[in-house]
TrEMBL record:
It catalyses: phosphoenolpyruvate + UDP-N-acetyl-alpha-D-glucosamine = UDP-N-acetyl-3-O-(1-carboxyvinyl)-alpha-D-glucosamine + phosphate. Keywords: Cell cycle, Cell division, Cell shape, Cell wall biogenesis/degradation, Cytoplasm, Peptidoglycan synthesis, Pyruvate, Transferase. It comes from the Bacteria. SUPFAM superfamilies: EPT/RTPC-like (SSF55205). Pathway: Cell wall biogenesis; peptidoglycan biosynthesis. This is UDP-N-acetylglucosamine 1-carboxyvinyltransferase. It comes from Enterocloster alcoholdehydrogenati. It holds the Pfam family EPSP_synthase. It is an enzyme of class 2 (transferase). Its EC number is 2.5.1.7. It is found in: Cytoplasm. InterPro entries: Enolpyruvate_Tfrase_dom, Enolpyruvate_Tfrase_sf, MurA_subfamily, RNA3'P_cycl/enolpyr_Trfase_a/b, UDP_GlcNAc_COvinyl_MurA.
Length: 435
């Protein structure tokens, strides 16, 4: 796997564009299977998970053509219903394909999904939602097999999630779009990526109301239409670069991102001593030209050491768990003691040991990490254990004296187009080893 070398203590300065969102584009690609025709996505990030989803679609019979940052998906000929194990094991979002296959062909099968090792990550809520839409599900030797109970296909129903799972909400949405009748999803996740998925599906001809709320109503339709949609900027990549400038100091501007999707993380950066300015631009996101929300730019300036923070992760609009590790990394170099409570994934402190190798002082008390800031951290040889944990090591290395080598960076490439390109454009001493 690839490795990254970082020479720390250089301030960041300049302007970069933010890649399209990983967690938004993956369910949209799965949803392309629902339409017997062409679906085009623009602003698609060039990341490993997108390559993996492309392979899955191609295996199922959907022709995919990538041109620049666009992907053209022609799902007229989709016939296969087994999602290959190799891809399902390497990516969490692969499980969403099951709902799309049930909606389109009335059956689908796959093994349990992989993704970042940050907790048990069961799929009980996914399967319960599919069952209540009329799927029969059984498991044979670790393979989940789902078929619709009647020839009519899936049927609209009421689904109540006891926890607002992002993936299970996406699963239910994809399965409900072509179901017979109305589906109501209560307790739905409200993450911006869910809202984007609803806008994208409506742009394809689906009928979904309640976007942005915890109750989604889907009127099933018989077929969808050809469509084009622009994927929104990645709020987690933008938040990671926000954490990077907190660690390194400097003055950066992030373009192509909707500031409101990062409201709480940006407020926390201000609380830790940054100056944050947001601006909206006259560009609308939806391909139909309906200006439902706007992309903009975020400027973040930080002089001196950041101050400490107390934060808790939680479902949107609470603090995103995906930014927990990058924030922990800059807080490891802050003035004073911070506390982070992880309330979404039970094993998401896997990067603490590597940060400690870099001189950080962090102790875990059940679900809470207590971080006593030290500056500077020191360069070390460390390993990325997961996607955001790997990005956090890059953030920590920016506040470290000397050189840091981060191994196993394939995890980072699952979600960041090119973290070295972005940070070196801002003046960081960073590069892929071997380049
Ligand atoms: C590809 C993608 O979009 N990944 C994101 C998605 O993951 P993902 O969709 O896996 O996250 P969920 O919202 O489903 O998981 C949240 C919590 O619910 C639990 N749970 C989930 C499903 C289920 O059937 N049963 C169950 O108990 C999980 O174990 C976890 O503790 O949302 C997470 C929470 O914002 C993010 O960190 C991930 O980056
Ligand atoms: C946890 C993440 O990804 P996944 O759900 O794909 O494992 C993430 O993006 O931080």
């Amino acid at each position: 796997m690839s490795a990254i070398r970082v020479t720390g203590l250089l301030p960041l300065e300049g302007e970069i564009s933010i890649q399209g969102s990983k967690n938004a584009v993956l369910p949209m690609m799965a949803a392309a299977l629902l339409h017997r025709g062409l679906t085009v996505l623009t602003n698609v990030p060039k990341i490993r998970d997108v390559a993996c989803m492309t392979r899955i679609l191609e295996h199922l019979g959907c022709a995919c053509i990538c041109r620049g940052s666009s992907i053209f998906m022609d799902a007229r000929e989709v016939q296969r219903t087994e999602i290959p194990e190799e891809y399902v094991r390497s990516m969490r979002s692969s499980i969403i394909v099951l709902g799309a296959l049930l909606g389109r062909l009335g059956e689908g099968s796959c093994c349990y999904p992989g993704g970042c090792l940050i907790g048990a990550r069961p799929i009980d809520l996914h399967l319960a939602a599919l069952k209540s839409l009329g799927a029969q599900i059984c498991e044979e030797e670790g393979i989940i097999k789902a078929v619709t109970r009647t020839k009519k296909g899936l049927e609209g129903t009421e689904i109540l999630f006891a926890y607002p799972s992002v993936g299970a909400t996406e699963q239910a949405l994809l399965a409900a779009v072509l179901a017979d009748g109305v589906t109501v999803i209560r307790g739905a996740a409200m993450e911006p990526e869910i809202s984007q998925l609803c806008h994208f599906l409506n742009n394809m001809g689906a009928v979904i109301c309640g976007t942005g709320t915890s109750t989604l109503m889907i009127q099933g339709v018989q077929c969808l239409k050809d469509s084009t949609f622009r994927v929104e900027g990645d709020r987690i990549a933008a938040g990671t670069y926000g954490a990077a400038v907190m660690a390194a100091g400097g003055d950066i501007t992030l373009k192509g991102i909707r500031p409101s999707s990062l409201r709480l993380p940006l407020m926390l950066l201000e609380q830790a001593g940054a100056e944050v300015d947001c601006a909206e631009e006259g560009r609308t996101l939806s391909a139909t030209g309906i200006g439902w929300e706007q992309e903009g730019r975020i400027r973040i300036r930080r002089e001196g050491r950041p101050g400490p923070l107390n934060l808790k992760t939680g479902p949107y609009p609470e603090f995103p768990t995906d930014l927990q590790s990058p924030f922990m990394a800059f807080l490891a170099a802050a003035r004073g003691t911070s506390r982070i409570e992880e309330r979404v994934f039970e094993e998401r402190f896997g990067t603490v040991g590597e940060l400690v190798k870099m001189g950080a002082s962090i102790r875990i008390e059940e679900k809470t990490a207590v971080i006593c800031g030290k500056y500077p951290l020191r360069g070390a040889c460390v390993k990325a254990a997961d996607l955001r944990g790997g990005a956090a090591l890059v953030v920590g290395a920016l506040a470290a004296e000397g050189e840091t080598i981060i191994k196993d960076c394939g995890h980072i490439e699952r979600g960041y187009e090119d973290i070295c390109r972005d940070l070196s454009a801002l003046g960081a001493g960073i590069g892929w080893i071997g380049e």
